[in-house]
Write a structure and sequence with these properties.
- By secondary structure, the protein is an alpha+beta fold.
- Helix content is 24%, strand content 28%.
- It contains 13 helices and 33 strands.
- Strands 3, 7, 8, 9, 10, 11, 12, 23 and 26 form a 9-stranded mixed β-sheet that branches. It has a 5-stranded mixed β-sheet with strand order 17-15-16-18-22, covered by helices on one side.
- Strand 24 and strand 25 form a beta hairpin.
- 43% of the residues are buried.
- The structure holds adenosine-5'-triphosphate and magnesium ion.
- Adenosine-5'-triphosphate binds at residues 109, 140, 142, 151-152, 155, 157, 426-429, 461, 463, 465-466.
């Protein structure tokens, strides 16, 4: 490819609507162009990157026994009603009506479609298991599309689904896919960590995410990990060994104390001169559920979380514990209206007759003689113990859940070592779905005795566009992108310094041809621009190798530069060509 013909425009400045480095760089280097919020055109350079990632995906998935198909992007509501997700999926699902007034949606994922596809095609146990995947556009009307391709509204995903007759068979395929994913990301030049995760709206029980670890907030996930035993989990799933810890407030008698205006945990700890972990904090939530009587409507219920004062609520865990569609922190007005006290003084005290779910976090288990709100303005109770709770307070007794965020330094559940935390970008995930879709959708296979059962399913996703962006996030410097050779749009660029110098131009053309003939994907920067401009563009675009043909050809030398190395090396043209060919052949 000649740079003079390449359909790309690099920009002098970063776009001003971008926060993430990958977003800034991919726009500035001409890889993508915004059409609307969270919707981008993938320009030719980007398309090459995405094609390479897809090629690696196809090779590895096919080798692992999966088969590619392609399902419709526009989906009828009917299928989603069958699975029960039409009501629960929320606003990420872009819904519309066709001209006949049929409800439709743009596919955010394809569990429903694939289940309907397999049903009736593969009905016999003899034909199972089967693993089917596609690489396709998805649309999710994300509440906060941001960070460019990391969280777009329209994006490309590889989604795969497997169908089984037993849990053992699913376990085997799950491991097969985990191994394939590890190979895929490695071949993309990306190091990933496989971590335990929450299964969320998609359902099922066992799931793992593949994270690219980064140290900035564009990694939207906190990953807790143990250096000793290898335990690692997304913060929405991570647990620590907390339950055997005892904290004693030291109060020797139960009494109500005036605490005027003291509402925060910090202030209470100071007020009583105790540690925060001796206060049982109450956090009031409003939870949204589908209305059982009218499925197009939702209802809100309050839920009170009791958690040790030094801990925070993990809202994904809470959402799961409540089985709600959505949750939000309740307002002061709601607290006053429903519980009679403003939030700073609430607790479960005397609320046994209210329609209120009370959930205790496991962190509270070891608390003694602690402080709680008195459910009266400007008052707290001190010296409280679990044995003081009666049916007047909580109907049916205390129930504990894991609904708190792990903190760095807490002990690993598996080995007790202090947990560490880092940020991660989720590039892929694998789920064991079980019969979550096949059961409600009545998708059945027949066993050897002629009996029917719902398929046991797994599903496996990889964000193709997100993987490209994650690579940029992970590999860049002040000058631009540093693509891993495996997924770079081109392997190399050849730059004649002076395009008016015939000798330089001839040698550059010769090198270009040799590289092309050897199968190297190479750009010849034949533009009549200053060398400085070409170098800047080469660094910004991020070609892994550059050969510069300049004045040194009088000594029989060119400059060979690897994008990831600071310095260029002088060598003969043939040597430089060989360096590149060898590296490309080793891919
Ligand atoms: P997230 O938690 O980041 O929203 P998810 O759990 O919704 O991801 P899945 O529905 O399982 O993700 O989708 C599979 C893969 O698709 C994800 O691992 C991610 O790489 C990618 N992906 C999901 N949402 C987006 C998005 N809005 N933009 C780009 N890629 C995405
Ligand atoms: Mg999502």
């Amino acid at each position: 490819m000649r740079a003079s013909k390449l359909f790309v425009q690099t920009l002098r400045e970063f776009p001003n609507d971008a926060e993430a480095m990958s977003h800034k760089l991919l726009v500035r280097a001409g890889y993508m162009k915004k059409l609307a919020n969270g919707i981008y055109t993938y320009m030719p350079l980007m398309q090459r990157v995405l094609t390479k990632i897809s090629k690696i995906l196809r090779e590895e998935l096919n080798a692992a026994g999966a088969q590619e198909l392609s399902m419709p992007f526009v989906q009828p509501a009917e299928l989603w009603e069958k699975s029960g997700r039409w009501q629960v999926y929320g606003k990420e699902l872009l819904r519309m009506k066709d001209r006949h007034d049929n409800e439709m949606c743009l596919g955010p994922t394809h569990e429903e479609v694939i289940t309907s596809v397999v049903d009736g095609v593969f009905g016999s146990y003899k034909q199972l298991p089967v693993n089917l995947y596609q690489i396709q556009l998805k649309f999710r009307d994300e509440i906060r599309p941001r960070f460019g391709l990391l969280r777009g509204r329209e994006f490309i995903m590889k989604d795969g689904y497997s169908f089984h007759t037993s849990q053992e068979s699913l376990d085997e395929e799950y491991q097969n896919m985990a191994d394939a994913y590890t190979r895929i990301f490695k071949r993309c030049g990306l190091e990933t960590k496989m971590v335990q995760s929450d299964s969320g709206a998609i359902g099922g029980s066992v799931s793992h995410e593949f994270m690219v670890l980064v140290d900035t907030s564009v990694g939207e996930n906190d990953v807790f990990y143990c250096e000793k035993c290898g335990y690692s989990a997304n913060s929405n799933h991570a647990v620590s060994k907390l339950t055997d810890e005892t904290t004693d407030g030291g109060f020797d008698k139960l009494e109500i104390v005036d605490t005027p205006g003291v509402t925060s945990i910090e202030d209470l700890a100071k007020f009583f001169n105790i540690n925060k972990n001796c206060i049982l904090k109450a956090v009031l939530y409003a939870a949204v559920y589908a209305d059982e009587k009218d499925k197009d409507k939702t209802v809100e219920k309050l839920a009170l979380v009791m958690i040790r004062g030094d801990k925070e609520v993990e809202e994904t865990k809470l959402l799961n514990a409540l089985g709600a569609l959505e949750i939000r922190i309740a307002t002061d007005d709601e607290a006053i209206e429903k519980l009679g006290t403003e939030r700073g003084f609430i607790s479960f005290k005397g609320l046994g007759d209210k329609d209120l779910r009370v959930l205790f976090d496991n962190s509270a288990k070891g608390m003694k003689n602690f402080v709680i709100g008195a459910n009266q303005a400007d008052k707290h109770i001190v010296g409280y113990n679990f044995s003081d709770i009666t049916e007047d307070d909580i109907k049916g007794g205390v129930k504990f859940y894991d609904i708190s965020v792990v903190k760095p330094g807490e002990a690993c559940v598996d080995c007790g070592e202090a947990l560490k935390v880092t940020r991660g970008i989720e590039v892929g995930n694998i789920f064991q779905l079980g019969t979550k879709y096949s059961k409600p959708m009545n998708a059945l296979y027949t066993d050897e005795n002629g009996k029917t059962h719902p398929y046991i399913m797994g599903c496996y996703g990889i964000g193709v566009t997100r993987t490209a962006a994650a690579a940029v996030e992970r590999y860049h410097d002040d000058f631009g992108i540093i693509w891993p050779l495996e997924i770079a749009p081109y392997h190399a660029v050849v730059v004649p310094v002076n395009t008016n110098d015939e000798e330089q131009v001839c040698l550059a053309e010769e090198i270009y041809k040799k590289l092309l003939d050897a199968g190297v994907e190479v750009v010849l920067d034949d533009r009549n621009d200053r060398a400085g401009v070409k170098f800047k563009d080469a660094d910004l675009i991020g070609y892994p190798f550059r050969i510069t043909v300049g004045k040194t050809i009088s000594e029989g030398l060119v400059e060979f530069k690897q994008r990831k190395e600071p310095e260029a090396v002088k060598m003969s043209p043939d040597e430089a060509v060989k360096c590149i060919i060898d590296r490309v052949n080793a891919l």
